[in-house]
Amino acid sequence: MPATPAWPPKSAPRLFVADVLSAGLAVRIEGNPAHYLARVMRVAPGDVVILCDDVTGEWAARVSDVGKRDVVVEIAELLRPREAVPDLWLCPALLKKDRFDLILEKATELGTARIQPLITRRCVADKLNLERARAITTEAAEQCARTALPELNEPVKLDALLAGWPEDRALFFADENGGEPAAQAFAASKGSPAAILTGPEGGFDDAERAAIRAHPQARPITLGPRILRGETAAIAALAAWMAISGDW
Fold first, then answer.
1. Do 156 and 42 belong together in one domain?
2. Which residue from 60, 66, 92, 188 has the fewest beta carbons nearer than 10 Å?
3. How far from each other are the two terminal CA atoms of the chain, in whole angstroms?
4. Checking DSSP bridges between strand 48-52 and strand 26-30, what pairing results, if any?
């Protein structure tokens, strides 16, 4: 007797969509996602796709029509509710494009709730293509079977970030000049809202460092005896926080 095929098939494509999903809903997929489904994955009516809406969770859907510029699917059933996300923000200074792309990708994989890009005096970049950045985080979430996306904000200057910082959120400052060991600091604040602040290629200047350290919510930390590049510092700090205080 042949085995019952897995439902949904493991090979089913995964996509995030803007619609809030519910059983029986017909969803029209257009643009690049439609091209991916129709031309790359070559879906046909009756095939299964997995959709996530970043609100309700992950749904199985069946393709009902494949057109030249769109694909229509009907939502069949909820597979998983939207995952719980630890209350951690990442505030990385902007880096060169390829290095900041890596931060966006890995921060999404690791499960940060919000990414707040930062502009400092020594940043080599002062702009971020937000649409492109969101495409990177979305693709990372799709590839890792996540049901939630990080909130991604426009870059802000350091002084604006500090001026508007919430009183109930610790700001762990990865300072190359030293501080409390990161693991010790993370463990002491376990269960509380937190954020991690990392610097640009050239590091923070003296005035910026002094302003951060003077902030009442700031907690300078060290990530060890080695000097880390900006993208490495952000990823390492996120991984350490998730291992100690997150959902690992």
1. no
2. 188
3. 40
4. unpaired
Separation of alpha carbons 223 and 44, rounded Å? 50
pLDDT per residue rounded down to tens, the chain (248 residues):
555 567 688 889 999 999 999 999 999 999 999 999 999 999 999 999 999 999 999 999 999 999 989 999 999 999 999 999 999 999 999 999 999 999 999 999 999 999 999 999 999 998 999 999 999 999 999 999 999 999 999 999 999 999 999 999 999 999 999 999 999 999 999 989 999 999 999 899 999 999 999 999 999 999 999 999 999 999 999 999 999 999 98
Q: Are residues 115 and 198 in the same domain?
A: yes
Are the C-beta atoms of residues 152 and 137 closer than 8 Å to each other?
yes
In terms of residue numbers, what domain contains 210?
88-244
Question: Which residues are within 8 A (CB) of 3 and not within 5 positions of it... i.e. 6 or more apart?
Answer: none
Question: Which tokens belong to 58?
Answer: 């992950």
CB 13 within 8 A of CB 66: no
* Same-domain pairing of 70 and 118: no
